[in-house]
């Protein structure tokens, strides 16, 4: 749109991340303003999954976490071979949801992300009803192909929006020192950002 | 008759279990029926169960398999296991398969290419490589499956057997062995080679930006610490140079297919320029056919088109160079999936991925055979 920016019209289908089942269709417009500010999005989706069923799944997972005797800790989800322990699937699902908020913040008209791996997760036991996890997630950035390491702190209570704070290292992981030379990474990490969604 | 009683007769009204050798089956059934003795079949084929147990035992014990029939195609393997597989395949099929060493990697690992040939001298050939980006594990795993598939087709005189009558197939399974070893030992997400060039701060060059086609143009990075670092000059990487030398000295390669993951795409040149390739229409139509064949197996959806219009601008990429060398049928695949597991594709998807991809490869190979140039 001359003088204004680039506007995209999108029509897409969604599927359940765990089962692959159809989860509804969406219609959206995304306007990237000429001045590089956040895009303007309008979106409308149809949901095919039963809200009650979602609530039940959330609640059963929530109860399971609350009744743990020890805080959950794990690393490499999925592992190198693509395996996810069934008991850790919901922890992975929370990471997917939480990192989508990071990807939302970081994406631009020319930069996109996928969740490559949950490098580590550690649960913090809270006195209130919320469950809280600290994650290190690896994001695969396109088209640069970089693997970005992000620290994510996620707080959750079923029925409430997920609270996500994140902090990504701004240098790619390829900054390893060779023999006799130092890593050239001089940039500081990006400022901690909070998001609630 | 040689009946083998697994549960011997114990008394009236109690069942009897009998293993019956195949050649006695008819006689035993007839006898039981003639005498009004009811029976049911508990196990149709005992040998099948024994075979399955055998492979399972070999699978679970971390020993190396003894031949390519017991090799586990449904698992990811180390570089040693794959190199051992290659040797076994050659030993089992000496009249079809030879192993060529086309060079050495930066860390002095041999770069092996399997040659599948039924004879002739310097026949027109098809080249397939997997694993040029080391973290894309489903590709090396698929390459191993392809190797076995070619041998099987030839033995059964089906599939690519007809292609092998007039063409040779070259298959480089571990195109970036240093990177691959690194993904096993240190960093599962390593993509590049492991070279360290003078003046470069970081290790590794992107082998898919190091070719002499638009080298250094937009679509690659000059920063050694990035994943798309093109390297100090074209073919600086021995992994790339060895293929360049091979292709040039062979001189008769008609189709060149370089395999990556993930995104589910079939791509043809160019990546370094928006100028359409002269053969774009033919390549586009061939891609449509190949993708249709791929999808026909499990419904996996692929998109296709030129690199620059379908994925992003990329300079110095493999198939741009091979195309400019005159290899018309130059393609890049991006295999499963579309981001859910990405590089960490579960092992149970290896064989389905290899199977469907093979159908697309056959379409391309057959087209090359039928459209010699």
SSE string of chain A, helix = H, strand = E? EEEHEHEEEEE
Helix share, percent of chain A: 10-25%
Mean pLDDT of chain A: 84
Overall SS class of chain B: alpha/beta
In what order do the strands lie side by side in the largest sheet of chain A? 4-5-6-7-8-9
Low-confidence stretches of chain B: none
- Cα gyration radius of chain A (Å): 19 Å
User: Looking at the chains present, what oligomeric state does this protein adopt?
Assistant: heterodimer
Radius of gyration of chain B: 25 Å
Q: In terms of per-residue confidence, which ranges of chain A show pLDDT below 50 for 5 or more consecutive residues?
A: 172-197
Q: Which two chains share the most extensive interface?
A: A-B, 33 and 38 residues
Instruction: Assign the CATH topology of the largest domain in chain B.
Output: Aminopeptidase
End-to-end Cα distance of chain A, whole Å, is 30 Å
CATH class identity of the largest domain in chain B: Alpha Beta
Short overview:
The complex is a heterodimer of chains A (197) and B (373). Chain A is of the alpha+beta class and 197 residues long.
Write the layout of secondary structure elements.
The complex is a heterodimer of chains A (197) and B (373).
Chain A: E1 5-15, E2 22-33, E3 40-45, H1 51-66, E4 73-77, H2 89-106, E5 112-124, E6 131-142, E7 147-156, E8 163-168, E9 193-196
Antiparallel strand pairs in A: 1-2, 2-3, 4-5, 5-6, 6-7, 7-8, 8-9
Chain B: E1 4-7, E2 17-19, H1 25-34, H2 46-60, H3 79-92, E3 97-104, E4 110-116, E5 125-130, H4 137-156, H5 163-166, E6 168-172, H6 177-185, H7 238-250, E7 253-261, E8 265-268, H8 280-298, E9 303-306, H9 307-310, H10 318-324, E10 329-335, H11 350-370
Parallel strand pairs in B: 5-6, 5-7, 7-10, 8-9
Antiparallel strand pairs in B: 1-2, 3-4, 4-6, 8-10
Helix pairs in contact in B: 3-4, 4-11, 8-11
Would you write up a description of this structure?
The complex is a heterodimer of chains A (197) and B (373). By secondary structure, chain A is an alpha+beta fold. Chain A has a domain at 70-168: Nuclear Transport Factor 2, Chain: A. In chain A, 17% of the residues lie in helices and 40% in strands. Chain A has 2 helices and 9 strands; from the N terminus they run E-E-E-H-E-H-E-E-E-E-E. In chain A, strands 4-5-6-7-8-9 form a 6-stranded antiparallel β-sheet. In chain A, strands 1-2-3 form a 3-stranded antiparallel β-sheet, with no helix packed on it. The radius of gyration of chain A is 19 Å and the shape is globular. With 373 residues, chain B is an alpha/beta fold. Chain B folds into 2 domains: 4-42, no CATH class; 48-370, Aminopeptidase (3-Layer(aba) Sandwich). Chain B is built from 11 helices and 10 strands. Chain B has helices spanning 25-34, 46-60, 79-92, 137-156, 163-166, 177-185, 238-250, 280-298, 307-310, 318-324, 350-370; strands at residues 4-7, 17-19, 97-104, 110-116, 125-130, 168-172, 253-261, 265-268, 303-306, 329-335. In chain B, the strands form 2 sheets. An 8-stranded mixed β-sheet of chain B has the order 3-4-6-5-7-10-8-9, with helices on both faces. In chain B, strands 1-2 form a two-stranded antiparallel sheet. In chain B, helix 4 (137-156) crosses helix 11. The interface between A and B is large, with 33 and 38 residues.
